[in-house]
Amino acid sequence: MSRIASIAVSHHRLPLDPPFKASWDGRPRTHFDATIVRVRDDEGREGVGSGDLMLGFAGHEDLFLGEDARRVERHYEVLSHIQFHYGRCWPLDLALWDLFGKITGEPVWRLLGGRADRVRLYASSGVLRETAEMVEAAERFAGEGFPAMKIRFSSSAGGRDGWRADLKVLEAIRARLGDKLDLMVDCNQGWRMPSDTAAPWTFKDALAVARELERLGVYWMEEPLHRADRAGMRALREATSVRIAGGEMTRELHEFRDLIADRALDILQPDVALVGGITGLRRVALMAREHNIAFTPHSWTNGIGVLANAHLTAGIGEAPWLEFPYDPPEWSLARRDFPLRASLAHADGWLLLGEVPGLGIALDEDRLAATRLGP
């Protein structure tokens, strides 16, 4: 039996120069933080996870120490209780699955069902650029073999002058590339940054945008309404041929149950690093599959989060694509994946997961030591 011997949490910060100005945040980001969770068993094997800050976890280590590391369902229950009382500590779930794979000698995608050892990727942009620059980025993504690209609309804090200006970017990309790329749009209406107090779109706002996106052949529109407006999302889904996507910041599994039961979305986008971990979201992925709803996770954390979401998607689902955050130079692979020994490489738009036991994480210990915050 493999028993949990230790759990260690460390925080790291990479300075960003030039800054990263995210479309969903009016304040340029001058650093990128990563939390690393390591769980060791009594035979010296180590599992690694990353994601949220692990707020509230300190003082609860004893609930895991000495337990069989493979009891992921038991550990999920404890983490769900910690989330209710404190914060989101799902990076530990990722680390436990990485350790589980190393104990069994199997990659996580196979432990989860083994449907595939790879996922198709879409390039997910994050910066609001001038129209010509966005067209150049789209051409670059198509040239690198990505089959699809997600374009961000500006939030109220973002930068462009409303959704009509955002549409001109889409029109320019379509004019230059035709149908070479499938296009998705993130409307940035489901949630707000703390400093942004603007109201989200109304249903009629969202419907007007949807009509324009239909004209441009957009595959999905993401977060077009406030995350709690299930009735509005269902009505929008029924009123337009554009697929409606959401759920990236939904916190509770019962909320996904309700989204599925209400037929509010065509596409579910939870992130294992932010909600439920792999253990919780495999329930959601299977539930979505049974209801013929696509499951394709959000993955704007770091390369460890991308890998964890990829293993779940490959092992269980048949997602059309997986999000690959990538928008150089401000959001380069080297920045996104700074905790890793090497950035995740795609092959003509595919991420290959291979046969390495666990999640396939190889940490850059020197970089982590140089970027560590605190003791």
Automatic annotation (TrEMBL):
GO terms classed as biological process:
carbohydrate catabolic process
Q: What InterPro entries does its record include?
A: Enolase-like_C_sf, Enolase-like_N, Enolase_C-like, Mandelate_racemase_C, RHMD-like
**Mind telling me which residue stretches traverse the membrane in this protein?**
none
The segment(s) forming the Mandelate racemase/muconate lactonizing enzyme C-terminal domain are 131-243
Keyword Isomerase appears in the UniProt entry: yes
Which SMART domains does this entry report, sorted A to Z? MR_MLE
GO terms, molecular function? hydro-lyase activity; isomerase activity; magnesium ion binding
What this protein needs as a cofactor is: Mg(2+)
Q: Name one Pfam family in it.
A: MR_MLE_C
What keywords would UniProt list here?
Isomerase, Magnesium, Metal-binding
| Entries under SUPFAM superfamilies matching the protein | Enolase C-terminal domain-like, Enolase N-terminal domain-like
The molecule here is called Isomerase
Biological source species: Rhodobium orientis
